Give the backbone structure.
Amino acid sequence: MNIINMLKNVAFMVDPGPDENSALWKMLEAYHTARANDEETKDICTLETVLESKDVLSFLQHNHQPLTSFLTEKDHLKKLLEYVTSSPELKSNLSQQSCKILCHNFASVREAVFADATDNLDILFGFEDEDQLESTTLTNLDSMHSGLLTQVVQKFLNTHNWYMVDYFSSKDALKEKPEQLLSSPGLLQTLVDTNYCYSGSALGQWMESIDMVDMLVSAFKGEKGEAAVTCAADVLRSIIQSVSPLLQQLESKEIIAQLLGDAFNPENPCKSEAQVQVISVCQFLSDKYQNEGCENIPEPLVPILEHLKEFNEILAPDADPTNLVNTSGNIIPFGMRRMKVVELYASLLGVGSDAINQALLKNGVFQTLLDAFFLYKWNNILQTSVMGMFHVVFHAEQHEFCKQVLEQTNLIPRVCELLIEDLRREKVGEPVSAYRGFFRTFSSTFLNLRVITDLAPVFESYPEWQQLLPLIDPKDAEEENTQEQPDEELQQAVDAEVVEVAEVAEVAEVPEVAEVAEVAEVAEVAEPEAAAQEAPALSDIVVEKNVENIDNMEVDAVTEPEVESKNETSVESTPTEITESTESESTAEAPEDEGQSADTEQA
């Protein structure tokens, strides 16, 4: 309960509600008193004074009945609707307040609008005369009032959708001249929004009945002015992005061809704006097919590829460019029009179609992009976009396509020459070029590409690359120099060594075999004789030694020193006896050994 009370107190502090002592309260009270007495109210309270009051939205939030009654009067309600699309000079706040009241969460005023929906909507859109087919209100809309009208229509569609759809689908002026809606880009974008214009909806059926897509495409002829071209482009982009039911009509080879043909028509009075906008529409359409890897070119994109020559002409530098001076010195402006072409090329490359890639290659698109990359050296947005496209080429696992791009653009020698110069400048402490950061990316990418079998010959064919390689990767360069020794000399050395080893093996083969056989025969003859011969009688010597030691231990009368000396004598005598017996045995065995060796030699 404490938390709830605290929240109530905070809400009261923020908005305490209608104040009886406020000027608005007293003014509304005086107004209703005068109305009850059938007195003049013009000098007491007007709609303008109420809208300019700082408390009007607070009173409306608390559903202040005198204010609601005042705003829903027929004359006041009409002015509210008119202020949405126009306002007196320097009184734009009246339009903004009217929009806020009509879009307010408390719908008392909005409900009054739809109590007589057709008449009030005619006032809003400027069709007050019954037989009026063209609205001056829509034609004269500025950007601010167009935005306010869009907000009101969106709110009306959310709260009273059926009334709005019925009005648009039954209005003869909008059936015969639907291009009037092009005066308000936001209004048309709201109408094609998939929240309202979905498959099978009444609004979608109405748009199909008036051929909305054809109307938007025809706007690119430029007859309705640049504002209509811009509006039509905004709506087409919205249809593509939101996957509107109208997209099926737009995704036609004929429709896109007509769109491009009108935009690039030399007689188009708005050709510059039309070309900028049509490039953007084509880019949005290309994005729809991103990463699909189509074997064939998608049908809506075919006309786009047919105009690559025109796109390259836009991207090409002017013959006499106007330089701009800033803190970096003289720069050549790139312009949004050229940037739209770069974005379109990036989207086409992102489709992943081999046919599209070959079309780009055939029309020299990559060469044109690289020329722009080096010409507009301070345009990081352009350079980043171009680097992104080359990244796609280098990492697409299409080595033949990558090879063709490298050969056509001469990218390797151009980058190598400038990078070598930058490295020289770095070494002596001089400023480097504006491309130094991008060159780091290029150099690391080149090191990865050069090891690919299909691309290695391309790198090896450029002497500039051979000069750069020791500077960016000395270790690999040294290994390459080592591997570049003549293969014939290395093979001759290996063959000579093999021949020498073979000759040594042939000479040594027979003696080794004879020696092995001789050793085997000696072993066979000597084995039975050695088995028949008795081993030396070492066991007797050991027994005699042990007996003598036992006798010495049994003598009790001998003193300790004497025993020690006697033990030492016995120990010393033992090896002597062993040695003598061993020598005598070996002497006795000598004749037998000589006889055995003689027999072995004879065998």
Q: What stands out?
A: Strands lie at 324-326, 329-331.
